[in-house]
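Per reviewer request, we include the raw input and output of the structure prediction for the construct analysed in the revised manuscript.
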Amino acid sequence: MRDVLGVALPLAVVAVLAATALLWIAPGVDVAAMSRGAIGPTTWPKAMLLAAAACAAFLALERVLFGRKAESPPSAVDYHEGRSAGAIALVIAYGVAIPVIGIAWSTPLFIAGWLLLGGLRAPLTVALVSVLGTVGLLYFFVKLSLMPLDRGKGVFEQATVVLYRLLGIY
């Protein structure tokens, strides 16, 4: 019974994720009107959900056909509960900060915090990765993909517009 549950449960989760990806992303939003060509604002989330569903289905099928069980990872000596809690708090803070200060300002802070949590202590490396990574993301999503990322509110919105103009995005 446990083997059947070990396969049926992941397959049910896969089915729910796939249905969600195909049917329920952005309900009530006219996604077709926002699309510019074949790629629209829901293309990336749908692709990632479908890829995750395909991977889960493959792993479940592998377990059924070949009887392979998931291997437990070796115990990590340098695992710290505090770092994990800090990472979760950082992700939550990033999600809260995006509507307030915008993607352009919250992303370098998030990347810098993530690198520091990961143990990277070289200030120049943290600064360069945070700033250049953010600029790359902004060019890709705002300039190339034409996605309207959150600019923040008030002074942050104005600062984001100035930054986009300085970078040649607007």
